[in-house]
Amino acid sequence: MIRSITRQKTPEEISGLLEPFTKIFIVGCGTCTTMARTGGQPEVVRMAKSLQEAGKEITGTMMIPVACDELTHEALEENKQAIAGADVLLIMTCAFGVQTIALHFMDKPVVPALDTLFIGKEKQPGTFDEICIQCGECVLGETGGICPVAGCHKGLVNGPCGGTDKGKCEVDAKKDCVWTLIYNKLEALGSLDVMRRYQDPKNYHVEPQPGKVLIPFEERSEEDGTQP
Ligand code: SF4
Ligand code: SF4
């Protein structure tokens, strides 16, 4: 079971990440980001409209019913043609969806439109994997869509460390070094220069704990068509 609470990046952040690209394909999610009203159908339509007004070309949009399950791959394949015509995929799902899509299309850059605030996943019954620590300042746009904060045992945002060995992690030799995965993805994109950019130390207190997002009652009533 997934619970991903997300918040849309500012228009300035999104336009900065999309600056090198002209043709954009937008992906929304029918589950958690629909619930949070950050990446459902209405938000995807609004995002497409505002990007078109900013001079971008939208090659298509799609809603994945559940961006974090195995059917995502099939859903993406159904839109393969429109996706092939895009320079970049703008992902309005949680960070799990961004990373699923980043690894599905190794030759396509992905840009997250949202920050994931808190998330956890049950990989198989009784086994839980942390795939995002909900840092509140998502760096996936700088790391090929693969998270070093959750995936690196040392949480390095400027990696790899000196212990990486033949693509494996020095802390757990059975596990891929996440910075090798990031390197491979950036190499496939022809964007290895991004590895040279220094990332500032992370602020781990962007979202006060315990995390809470509350949609004001007036806003809910307005969108639902009911009176407050
Ligand atoms: S950088 Fe990693 S930990 Fe932070 S929001 Fe993005 S995926 Fe989650
Ligand atoms: S080997 Fe890679 S994943 Fe492991 S601690 Fe070093 S940089 Fe992080």
Please characterize this protein's 3D structure.
By secondary structure, the chain is α/β, with parallel strands linked by helices. It has a domain at 5-137: 3-Layer(aba) Sandwich (Rossmann fold). Helices cover 32% and strands 17% of the residues. It has 9 helices and 8 strands. It has helices at residues 11-18, 32-35, 41-53, 71-78, 80-84, 95-104, 148-151, 178-189, 217-224, and strands spanning 5-8, 23-29, 57-64, 88-92, 110-112, 114-118, 121-124, 127-129. It has a 4-stranded parallel β-sheet with strand order 3-2-4-5, sandwiched between helices. The chain has a two-stranded antiparallel ribbon with strand order 1-6. A two-stranded antiparallel sheet has the order 7-8. Helix 6 (95-104) links the parallel strand 4 (88-92) and strand 5 (110-112). The chain is globular, with a radius of gyration of 18 Å. The chain starts with a strand and ends with a helix. The structure holds iron/sulfur cluster (2 copies). One iron/sulfur cluster binds at residues 95, 115-116, 132-135, 138-140, 147, 149-150.
